[in-house]
Amino acid sequence: GPCPQNQLALANSRLWDAIAGFLYIFAHMQRKLSQDPTQIELLREFMRLQKDMIIMLLSMLEGIQYNLFFLKLTFNLILSFLGNVLNGPIGKQMVDTLIESQVNVELLLQFFDIFLKIKDLTTSEAFQEYDINKDGFISPKEFRRAMEAQKVYTRPKFKR
């Protein structure tokens, strides 16, 4: 068979191809799930899985420990930071994979940013004013009342 060095190189390449594939799947499944309000629980589980993947990727950085602060950074900041800090083959491969998957990573970060801001939104006075039963959700009925109170939309406009 092939020499061990070639096997190692192929295995390493396939690992990063798989990670790029996961980034693609995560980004596009997340987009689809977020468009269907009946899939919120599945979307939450999916985001937990993504968080675990990010932690796994960060733990691969040869002993360098970071917290999940990365999730709030833009893609360019991540690349410049990684490019300046990382040495060694794992870090370089990760940067290459992130560059190749730039569109998917940006989409993932956009969703993480939205979900990280949700707590601030749901605890705001404006939100709680419309959350009549204080359950952290605005029901369609509560939303309809809020829209009518704003007098921006009429009943036929938001029934569509």
Summarize the structure.
This protein is an all-alpha fold. The chain is built from 8 helices and no strands.
Walk me through the topology.
Layout: H1 4-34, H2 40-59, H3 75-85, H4 89-100, H5 102-122, H6 125-130, H7 140-150, H8 155-159
Can you describe this structure?
The protein is mainly alpha-helical and 160 residues long. The radius of gyration is 21 Å and the shape is elongated. The protein is 73% helix and 0% strand. The chain folds into two domains: 4-121, no CATH class; 123-160, no CATH class. The protein has helices spanning 4-34, 40-59, 75-85, 89-100, 102-122, 125-130, 140-150, 155-159. Keywords: Calcium, Membrane, Transmembrane, Transmembrane helix. InterPro entries: EF-hand-dom_pair (IPR011992), EF_Hand_1_Ca_BS (IPR018247), EF_hand_dom (IPR002048), Ryanodine_IP3_receptor (IPR015925). This is EF-hand domain-containing protein. The chain crosses the membrane at residues 66-86.
